[in-house]
Design goal:
By secondary structure, the chain is mainly beta. It has a single domain, classed as Jelly Rolls (Sandwich), CATH 2.60.120.260. Helix content is 0%, strand content 58%. Strands 1, 2, 3, 4, 5, 6, 7 and 8 form an eight-stranded antiparallel β-sheet that branches. The protein is globular and about 40 Å long. This is F5/8 type C domain-containing protein. Pfam families: F5_F8_type_C. It comes from Lottia gigantea. InterPro entries: FA58C (IPR000421), Galactose-bd-like_sf (IPR008979), IFT25 (IPR033558).
């Protein structure tokens, strides 16, 4: 099992609802702890990670800031038909980063969509998303 969401593993951000030249969405998958994606201040916000092939997702970990409600969705092809696999309300962490973990059996996916439905402030940030799993053979 390894991190399927790293850009060096071939993962790509194929959609993000906001982008800033200083804090682009690709920062979430660059493997660095100090970089991040910043949202533009309206909700909902979302991003989609495309994996290099069909994968089995075992767990997802998100390091973020100011997120209140989040939804994780997957699909196994290039359609827009996503299936919700988790919804959660995060606790406010004041000035500390939020680290949230999600565990699954084996969830098959080609794409992972993360929908930030609301936040504790106008802006939120995602520092890192880790997707542990294996390629489907």
């Amino acid at each position: 099992m390894f991190d399927l969401a790293l850009s060096e593993a071939g993962a790509q951000i194929i959609l993000a609802t906001s982008s800033d030249d200083k804090y682009p969405p690709e920062h979430m998958i660059d493997g660095k702890d100090e970089t991040f994606w910043a949202t533009c201040g309206l909700y909902p916000q979302e991003f989609v990670i495309r994996f290099t092939s069909l994968v089995n997702i075992n767990s997802v970990s998100i390091t973020c800031y100011n997120i209140r409600d989040i939804k994780l969705e997957v699909n196994s092809d290039d359609s827009q038909n996503f299936k919700t696999i988790e919804q959660k309300e995060f606790q406010s962490s004041d000035s500390a980063p939020q680290i949230e973990d999600f565990s699954f059996g084996n969830v098959k996916a080609q794409n992972l969509r993360v929908v930030i439905e609301s936040g504790y402030d106008h802006f939120c940030a995602v520092y890192k998303i880790t997707v542990n799993g294996t390629a489907v053979h």
